[in-house]
Specification:
Length: about 190
C-alpha cells in the first residue's frame, strides 16, 4: 500500500501543475493545449491532475486567479517604491514596459482567455472580470492620491498599451501611454 500523500506534497504538486499549465496556456493558448501535454509538462498523472481540478476550465480559473495575485503583487511592489503620487502612477507604465520587453510576452493572459472562452465559460469570464476590476481599483487608488481625476483614462491607456504591445511585439506602447498619462497629470 502506498504511503498517504501529505499536505505539503499536495501543495507542491498543485503548484507544479499550475506552473506547467500557466506556461503552456500563456505560450500557446488554452484550447491548443491538451491535458496530456499538461500531464507531461507537470510530471503528474492525469488521475492526480483531475483530483486537483475536475475540469480544464477549473484549471484555467485557478491558473488565472494565481497569476492575478502574482501579477498585481509584482506591479504593486514596483509602484509603491515610488513616493511621489504622480510619479507612482507613471511607474505603472515603466513596469508595463519592462513586462512587454520580456521574452515570451504574449499580452494579457486574461484578455487571451476571454478571447478563447468568450461567453462560453461563466467561470472564466468571472475571473477575467475580477482581474480587470482589481487592476482598475489599483490604478484608481494610485491616481486618486494625485488629486487629478484621471483614473479612467489612465486605466484605459494601460489596457490599450498591453494590447498594442502584444500585437505589435514592441514595448513602445508603454512609453506612449506613459507620456499621455503624464500630460493628464500635468507632469509632462
Amino acid at each position: 500500500m502506498p504511503a498517504p500523500i501529505t499536505e505539503e506534497r499536495n501543495r507542491l504538486d498543485r503548484e507544479t501543475l499550475l506552473d506547467a499549465a500557466e506556461r503552456l496556456f500563456y505560450e500557446r493558448g488554452v484550447r491548443a493545449v491538451g491535458m496530456d501535454e499538461i500531464r507531461a509538462a507537470s510530471g503528474l498523472p492525469l488521475k492526480r491532475i483531475y483530483r486537483f481540478f475536475a475540469t480544464k476550465e477549473d484549471l484555467v480559473v485557478a491558473m488565472l486567479r494565481r497569476r492575478d495575485r502574482r501579477w498585481r503583487g509584482d506591479l504593486a511592489a514596483h509602484v509603491e517604491q515610488v513616493t511621489d503620487p504622480r510619479e507612482r502612477v507613471l511607474a505603472v507604465f515603466d513596469w508595463l514596459a519592462e513586462w512587454f520587453a520580456q521574452p515570451g510576452f504574449r499580452g494579457c493572459a486574461w484578455v487571451n482567455a476571454f478571447g478563447e472562452f468568450g461567453a462560453s465559460s461563466e467561470a472564466v469570464l468571472a475571473e477575467v472580470r475580477a482581474h480587470k476590476q482589481a487592476f482598475h481599483r489599483q490604478i484608481a487608488t494610485w491616481v486618486h492620491a494625485t488629486g487629478v481625476p484621471v483614473a479612467e483614462p489612465a486605466f484605459l491607456l494601460a489596457e490599450g498599451a498591453i494590447v498594442a504591445a502584444a500585437i505589435s511585439g514592441d514595448p513602445a506602447p508603454a512609453r506612449h501611454a506613459r507620456a499621455a498619462v503624464a500630460q493628464l497629470l500635468g507632469t509632462a
